[in-house]
Amino acid sequence: MDNFYFERECRTPYSECYVVLEDERAVGRLDIHFAQTVIHATLNVEERLTTEAIQDLIDLIDDELLDSVGINRQEIIFHVHQGRDIGVFTARDFDGNGGHERLG
Question: Global pTM?
Answer without folding.
Answer: 0.81
